[in-house]
Model the fold of this input.
Amino acid sequence: MKLPVHIQFHDMEPSDALEASAREHAHRLESFAPDIMACHVHIDLEQKHKHQGRPFGVRIDVTLPGHELVVNRVQNEDVYVALRDAFDHMKRQLEDVVRKRRRQEKQHALALHGELVRLDDAGGFGFIRTPAGDEYYFSRDNVAGTPFEHLQIGSAVQFIPEAGDEGFQAKRVSLGKHGMGEPPAE
Done:
């Protein structure tokens, strides 16, 4: 955390054990989102309620780049249960933020198009040449939607490029251009 965890007690005496528990919970949040900038924990002894006694309330504010998350007033008569439940709610919020970030950052490889130029039926592999002249190796395990035995030299294919140990490789090889249309006439 960029700033130390800030813990405040309201209408109750500060407790070293409770403060240590809150700090431990707060530092565990960093395993879900290591870029937490600040964490504020407010622990209150609520006013007496007719039917429930005096519950404790916990509020947590967490600041991340681009996000401010709040868990507001988780209550329980056991302050440690209220603290645990509040941090569980915050953990779920952080997981949601991280999940959304990952979807936004996930980059899918763009499919390339090419033509089958060599096939080895006995070996179960072949080569694709792109319009740029690069050749990509593929094996029968990388062919999708069509049996390897039905491939023919000269067929148009679409594939996902990947750098292999011994050069360019093609993954998810499929026949056709899949909605890309024909290339413009030259």
